[in-house]
Amino acid sequence: MNETTGRRAVLDVWCDLQCPDCHRAESDLLALRERFGEALEIRRRHFPLASHPHALAAAQAAEEAYAQGRGDAYWTALLARTADLGARGTVVLLEVARDLGLDADEVDTALIDGRHMLMVDADQAEGEALGVSGTPTYVIGGTRLDGGRSQEGLRERIAEIAESLLDQPSGL
């Protein structure tokens, strides 16, 4: 939290885990996390695109990784392998799980039984309601910022909005 105000800003990031643009956006999220620490809550949201055939399964696998306590690490590791996921399919989801010490059999079972579909569907529906149509898309302080191939300037714009939210007096 912001040490002087005790306030917190929330950044929602809609992402497709098979999207190379989302992989490129990870460095921005890391930089924002380093800059703001706990004062900026980054919430990773699912928005699997129809053009990426393994994105829906990837979103479900990521939710299982969160259930096993390693969701952020799984998310980042999987985004680093978007091309591999596109070429080799869901076997990559289990490889990443094993690499991170997760129970890969449980990830596989979660993909079969669909236990995380409601969470993925809810994220996607909320994103659609907010006008999300591509990935990555950011929402902070009621402002939607569309990423994609051009991330240029987005980190700075997000930081500006976060700073303005954190500088607001309490009760506003």
Extended strand count = 4
Weakly predicted, low-confidence segments: 1-5
Give the integer mean of the pLDDT values.
Answer: 92
| Rg from Cα | 16 Å
Q: End-to-end span in angstroms?
A: 17 Å
* Major beta-sheet overview: 4 strands, mixed
Helix content: 40-55%
Strand order, main sheet: write it out: 2-1-3-4
Discrete helix count = 8
Short overview:
This protein has helices at residues 20-36, 55-67, 71-79, 82-88, 91-99, 104-113, 117-129, 154-167; strands spanning 9-15, 40-46, 137-140, 143-146. By secondary structure, the protein is of the alpha+beta class.
Q: Keywords, please?
A:
4-stranded mixed beta sheet; globular; 4 strands; 8 helices; 172 residues; disordered N terminus
How would you portray this structure in words?
The N terminus is likely disordered. Helices cover 53% and strands 13% of the residues. α1 packs parallel to α8 and α5 runs antiparallel to α6. The protein has eight helices and four strands; from the N terminus they run βαβααααααββα. It is globular and about 50 Å long. The longest helix is centred in the N-terminal third of the chain and has 17 residues. A four-stranded mixed beta sheet has the order 2-1-3-4, sandwiched between helices. By secondary structure, it is an alpha+beta fold. A hairpin with a 2-residue loop joins β3 and β4.
